[in-house]
Design brief:
The chain has 228 residues and is mainly beta. It is built from 2 helices and 17 strands. Helix content is 6%, strand content 35%. Strand 7 and strand 8 form a beta hairpin. The mean pLDDT is 94.
Length: 228
C-alpha cells in the first residue's frame, strides 16, 4: 500500500532553533515557524523532520505519518495535541464528571468518549423518582439521564456498577460517555439523586493527529498520523 507524506520548508524564528520530532506552529510571517508558547496551542504547522538553527530552514511534515516526542504516556489511537512550549505532544484530554461518594461505594467517574471542548457541554443527570421505577437510560441533546430503579417506597435500588453497565449497553449513551468506579469505590452502593456537568475537555480543534503507537514515558518518540 502506498504511503504519502508532505514536507514543507519553513524559516525557524526561535533564537535557540528547533530539534527534530517536535511540533511547531505558525510564526509571525508566512513561511516562518516557531515552537509553541503553551500547551494545546493552535495554528499548528506540523512536525519537524530534523533540527535547525534560527533563521535556517527546517522541513516540517504536514501530511502523512510524522515522528513526534511525547511528554508522557500516550496510548495508540489517542488524539494528540501540543503538551508544552518544547513542542512535545500529549493525549488530548477528555471531559470528565463525577457523581457519588467513594465512602458510599457509589462514586463514578464519567468520561466523554471524544476528546475536545464539546465534551464540556455534557451533563449526567441521575434521577431517583417514583415507586417501583425500572432502571432506564435516556439521551436528550447533551444530557444523559439515568433513571434509577426504586423500590415500593421510592428508595433507589440501582447500584453504581449497574448504572455503569446500563450506560455501556445503551446505544446512544455509550457513544457519548463511559463510566468507571472512582478510587476505592466498589460500585456496590446505590445511586443518589444528583446532576453533574462535564469539564476538562481540551479543544478538539487543536488536536492535530492520532497516535499510531504508544509512549510509556516522557521523551519517547512515536509515530502520529497527522490530521491537520
Amino acid at each position: 500500500m502506498a504511503s504519502y507524506v508532505l514536507d514543507k520548508a519553513y524559516r525557524v524564528t526561535d533564537s535557540g532553533g528547533v530539534i527534530a520530532n517536535r511540533a511547531v506552529v505558525q510564526g509571525v510571517q508566512p513561511g516562518e515557524c516557531k515552537l509553541p508558547t503553551a500547551a494545546n496551542e493552535g495554528a499548528i504547522l506540523g512536525a519537524t523532520v530534523h533540527g535547525a538553527s534560527q533563521d535556517q530552514s527546517v522541513a516540517v511534515r504536514k501530511l502523512g505519518i510524522a515522528s513526534l516526542t511525547a511528554a508522557g504516556a500516550v496510548s495508540a489511537g489517542d488524539a494528540v495535541c501540543i503538551a508544552d512550549n518544547q513542542g512535545r505532544i500529549k493525549a488530548a484530554a477528555k471531559a470528565k464528571a463525577e457523581t457519588g461518594v467513594e465512602g458510599n461505594n457509589n462514586a463514578i467517574t464519567w468520561t466523554a468518549k471524544k476528546c475536545g471542548g464539546s465534551g464540556n457541554a455534557l451533563i449526567v443527570d441521575i434521577v431517583v423518582s417514583g415507586n417501583n421505577t425500572p432502571l432506564s437510560i435516556a439521551v436528550a441533546g447533551n444530557t444523559i439521564t439515568i433513571n434509577s430503579a426504586t423500590d415500593g417506597g421510592g428508595i433507589a435500588t440501582t447500584t453504581a456498577a449497574q448504572a455503569i453497565a446500563a450506560i455501556a449497553a445503551h446505544a446512544n449513551a455509550s457513544v457519548l460517555i463511559s463510566g468507571a468506579n472512582k478510587g476505592t469505590s466498589s460500585g456496590a452502593g446505590v445511586l443518589a439523586d444528583e446532576t453533574a456537568s462535564f469539564s476538562g475537555g481540551e479543544l478538539g480543534d487543536n488536536a492535530f493527529g492520532f497516535a499510531e503507537e504508544s509512549a510509556s514515558a516522557s521523551g519517547d518518540i512515536i509515530d502520529v498520523f497527522l490530521s491537520l
